[in-house]
Amino acid sequence: MLIFAPAVYAQTSELSVEESKIVWTGKKVGGSHTGEIQLLSGYLEKSGDQFVSGKFVADMTSISNDDIKDADSRAKLVGHLKSDDFFSVDEHPTATLEIDNGEEVSPGTYKFTGEMTIKGHTNAVSFEADVDGETFSGKLTVDRSKYYVRYGSGSFFDNLGDNLIYDEFDLEFEVTFEE
Predict the structure, then answer these.
(1) What is the DSSP letter of 177?
(2) What is d(CA 171, CA 35) in angstroms, rounded to the nearest whole number?
(3) Which three-class secondary structure state does DSSP give residue 46?
(4) pLDDT at 156 over 50
(5) 44: burial class by Cβ within 10 Å (0-12, 13-18, 19+)?
(6) pLDDT tens, 16-40?
(7) Domain 12-176 part of CATH 3.40.50.1450
């Protein structure tokens, strides 16, 4: 009896960390903030025409802010994002995205499904990405309340008024793989 092992025929592409980028955007009543998070590692594995697995590790200690010009105010926001009010980076220095499946939904566009872990909490995610050569780009919208990032959340606190921070934040990514 012949048994086929798909992993034997799989092709793995390693992430080029230096050429990849994640930009976060968080919104609140009356405005928004944006910045970057660096990737530590990643790969995608493809078998035939299907992506069968992948894993990306983000360095949560690298959270930065790009829109606040005043250095003290920018440092205050970044410190707050790293604190237990938000991402608890001392206790949880990385976040992961594990891909379970990826299929082409139209020429050059893939739908990926998997699980994201932030602050030790894991939830299912799905998103689309466009491919251009060795580069995938897209946007993943994350509901922070599912990861117990509660500060200023209307899902957990009443009467926040102008201090409300929306639960969903965006991660726009452009990830490039080594050839």
Answers:
(1) B
(2) 10
(3) strand
(4) no
(5) buried
(6) 999 999 999 988 777 888 999 999 9
(7) no
CA-based angle 89:95:96, to the nearest 5?
170
Q: Is the pLDDT of residue 75 over 60?
A: yes
Residue 24: its H or E element? strand 21-28
Contact 168, 141 (CB under 8 A): yes
Average pLDDT over residues 71-99: 91
* Cα–Cα distance for residue pair 153/163, rounded to 1 Å: 9
What is the C-alpha separation between 62 and 104, in angstroms, rounded?
A: 32
pTM: 0.86
How high is the pLDDT of residue 47? 87
Contacts of 149 (CB under 8 A, 6+ apart): 86, 87, 118, 119
Token couple for 137? 């780009």
- Say how far apart CA 23 and CA 16 lie, in whole Å: 16
Q: What residues form DSSP beta bridges with 94?
A: 59
pLDDT exceeds 50 at position 53: yes
For residue 128, give the 3-state DSSP assignment.
strand
CB 103 within 8 A of CB 111: yes
User: Is the confidence at residue 112, as pLDDT, over 50?
Assistant: yes
91: three-class secondary structure by DSSP: coil
